[in-house]
Write a structure and sequence with these properties.
Elements: H1 3-8, H2 15-18, H3 22-36, E1 40-45, H4 50-53, E2 58-60, H5 62-70, E3 76-80, H6 83-92, E4 98-100, H7 109-112, H8 116-130, E5 134-139, H9 144-152, E6 156-158, H10 163-173, E7 176-180, H11 183-192, E8 200-204, E9 209-211, E10 221-224, H12 236-245, E11 250-253, H13 259-264, E12 267-268, H14 271-279, E13 286-290, H15 293-302, E14 307-310, H16 326-337, H17 349-364
Parallel strand pairs: 1-2, 1-3, 3-4, 5-6, 5-7, 7-10, 8-10, 11-12, 11-13, 13-14
Antiparallel strand pairs: 8-9
Helix pairs in contact: 3-16, 5-6, 6-17, 9-17
């Protein structure tokens, strides 16, 4: 079922929840959570609001939380994140368990930049151009349909933590790779491994064409023309300004940022890497962080001994991630108390099987 079909097939939050004061919602959420006990387990992604994170039984990045979900015995997993994350949790949990996304509007613009129709069409065209020389890899920030496609075609998923290792693995399998759906993580990873930028081509799914600055036989990496709308807001000019005004402030960014931003920064890494790097930073050190604002604000509040700012001073949180809020969480919990499962995420059996295969190849390698 597509996200559009899901939205048409689900209840929307009653207005009484959105008009209720936060302190009352908090009390009601606590009461409902206590009634449900071990029947419910709540996951909170690092980018979630504090009003949601405070209820999380576990926090982490997307794949980490899905793996945690798979280890739970609770009847219901409430995933406070976005749609593709809840899909992965449903793939990895037992058939009798429910995975709930409190607001189905919580999507991911990056994941939506690669549809299964576009990907199948691109694959056919790329096979005509390059023959059987391409292995597909997909960032875990992709839909179940894309994970399944990659699984069917011998590929694997990657995370921002293991992308270097998985790209090396891909080249041990085939001459070329197709990297979906984030061109920037793919470009930054391949460049780190010594692949020249001019040997990387871009597949434009809208124009249905390959954009290359070299002969086709020299193409090694085909990057899907997708990106994270949040990390695209960190620009080289932000780094230039800081270098001129605060040369002692270290710049740490996520590899979903552009290649220009990543190469101009002092360091880059996954969300988990950023958290760990700040956790171990010397007292009094100064940092500018290029990632989602809820996480940056949390790092600021949790590390008063450090001087932390956002690399982009006008940055806002991930808007789709922030659709999960206290009203939606309270509504979800109270409906469960009443015996109603709202907004369940279900991945069909075939899609789940091949998605799991793509994930398993990543874990095996």
């Amino acid at each position: 079922m597509s996200i559009l079909e899901l939205l048409n097939d689900t209840s929307t939050i009653p207005t009484s929840y959105t008009s209720t004061p936060s302190d009352e919602l908090y009390r009601r959420a606590v009461a409902a959570r206590n009634k449900l006990g071990e029947r419910v387990y709540i996951l909170g992604h690092h980018y979630q609001k504090d009003e949601v994170i405070q209820f999380a039984d576990a926090t982490g990045d997307s794949l980490q939380l899905s793996q945690i979900a798979a280890a739970q015995t609770a009847d219901t997993i409430i995933f406070c994140g976005v749609h593709f994350m809840a899909e992965t949790a449903d793939i990895l949990t037992a058939p009798h368990q429910n995975v709930i996304l409190p607001d189905l509007r919580a999507g991911c613009s990056m994941a939506d930049m690669a549809t299964i129709t576009q990907t199948e069409r691109a694959w056919d065209n790329l096979q005509e151009l390059f023959g059987d020389t391409i292995l597909p890899l997909t960032y875990v920030n992709s839909t179940a349909a894309i994970k399944s496609f990659v699984g069917k075609h011998g590929g694997a998923t990657v995370t921002s933590s293991n992308a270097h290792h998985m790209v090396k693995w891909a080249f041990s399998q085939k001459q070329r790779l197709l990297f979906l759906p984030d061109q920037h993580l793919g470009r930054n990873t391949a460049a780190d491994l010594g692949i020249p930028l001019e040997h990387m081509a871009i597949w434009d799914p809208i124009r249905n064409q390959l954009e290359a600055n070299c002969a086709h036989e020299d193409v090694q990496v085909i990057l899907w023309k997708g990106h994270c709308s949040v990390h695209m807001n960190f620009l080289p000019k932000h780094i230039t300004h800081l270098r001129a005004t605060e040369p002692d402030r270290r710049i740490l960014v996520h590899p979903e940022c552009t290649h220009e931003v990543v190469t101009a920064s002092d360091d880059n890494g996954s969300t988990s890497y950023i958290i760990e790097r700040i956790k171990n930073a010397p007292s009094g050190s100064k940092w500018a962080i290029g990632t989602e604002m809820n996480l940056v604000n949390r790092l600021i509040s949790e590390n008063p001994h450090l001087d932390i700012v956002s690399l982009n001073p006008f940055m806002c949180p991930c808007l789709t991630m922030n659709r999960i809020d206290l009203p939606h969480l309270t509504w979800t919990l109270e409906e469960l108390v009443n015996g109603t499962v709202i907004n369940p995420i279900r991945v069909d059996e075939e899609t789940a099987r091949y998605s799991k295969l793509a994930l398993q190849r990543m874990w095996d390698n």
